[in-house]
Amino acid sequence: TDSKKGVLRKKKNLLVAGKGKQMPIHYGSLEHHFVTISSPLANEMPQAVGSAYAFKRAKSGRVVIVYYGDGAASEGDAHAAYGFAGTLKCPVVFFCRNNGYAISTPTSEQYGGDGIASMGPPHAINAIRVDGNDFFAVYNVTKAAREMALQNQPVMIEAMTYRAGHHSTSDDSSLYRSREEVMTWKTKENPITRFRTYLVDKGWWKEDDESKWQKEARKEVLESFNAAEKLQKLHPREMFEEVYKKKPLSLQRQQRQLDEHLERYAEHYPMEHFGKLPHKSE
C-alpha cells in the first residue's frame, strides 16, 4: 500500500509531507485521523485530552484514543492528562501497553502500586486490565471503552503484554533479561502465534496460505524498498524548511554554515544525487 511505501521511503521520500524529518515509525495519516507520533514520552497524552475536549465542546460525537507505554505512564504529562480528562469528562481512551520494560527499566522500578490501571479511578477514570496478547480480548475491551467514552466518560485500558525484541537498534536487551524469558514470550505467548493457532483450529488458515502470504508481503516490501533506493535524496537544506514560518536567527546561521560546508567540500557531496534546492526562506 502507499502508506507502507511511505514509511520505507523515510529519508528519500520527496512525495510525502514529512519528508523524512521524523523518526522511522513516526508517521501519521490525515485520512485515517492518525496524529503523528511524538518522540518525548507522554507528550501526546495532554494533546489527546485537549483534542477530546474540543470534540466534546463541538458535540462532534468523536472519541480520541491515545497509545503509550508503561514508561510514559511515569511521566508528569501522563498524570496531567489524567487530571484534565477526569475533571473535564473528556471522551478519551488511554491505552497503556504495559510490556514490562521502559527500555531497560523493569516495571518493578517504575511504580510501587498495582500497575497502571490503578492510576485511573483516583482521577475519575474507569479502568480495565486486559491480556494484551489476546486479539479478541483487546478488540472487545477497546470497543466497550469507546462506547463509554462516547458518554463523556474517560477510560483507561492497561494491556499486559511483552516486548520480545530490543527497544531499538541501540539497545541490547540481553544485558537486562534472560534469553529463556524472551523465548517463552516469543513462542508461547506471542499474540500472532496465539491468533494463528485459533484460525488453524477453526479451519480458516492453512500453511499454504501463510507461505503464499509471506512471499507476497516480502515481494511488496522489497519492491517498495527498491523504488525508494532509486529516488533522489532530499537536498540537505530541507532540514531547515517547513518548521518555522520565519526562521530564527540561530537556524539562519546554521543554514549559512551548511551552505559554506557544502561549497567547501563539494567533492564529497555530489549534488546531482540530491533533489532540488527547496524554496529559500529566511
Automatic annotation (TrEMBL):
Catalytic activity of the protein: N(6)-[(R)-lipoyl]-L-lysyl-[protein] + 3-methyl-2-oxobutanoate + H(+) = N(6)-[(R)-S(8)-2-methylpropanoyldihydrolipoyl]-L-lysyl-[protein] + CO2
Record key words, sorted: Oxidoreductase, Thiamine pyrophosphate, Transit peptide
Cross-referenced InterPro entries: Alpha-ketoacid_DH_E1_comp (IPR050771), DH_E1 (IPR001017), THDP-binding (IPR029061)
Cofactors (names): thiamine diphosphate
Protein EC: 1.2.4.4
SUPFAM superfamilies associated with the record: Thiamin diphosphate-binding fold (THDP-binding)
GO annotation, biological process: branched-chain amino acid catabolic process
Taxonomic superkingdom: Eukaryota
Any one GO molecular-function label of the UniProt entry: branched-chain 2-oxo acid dehydrogenase activity
Job description of the protein: The branched-chain alpha-keto dehydrogenase complex catalyzes the overall conversion of alpha-keto acids to acyl-CoA and CO(2). It contains multiple copies of three enzymatic components: branched-chain alpha-keto acid decarboxylase (E1), lipoamide acyltransferase (E2) and lipoamide dehydrogenase (E3).
The protein's name in its UniProt record: 2-oxoisovalerate dehydrogenase subunit alpha
Organism whose genome encodes this protein: Parascaris univalens (Nematode worm)
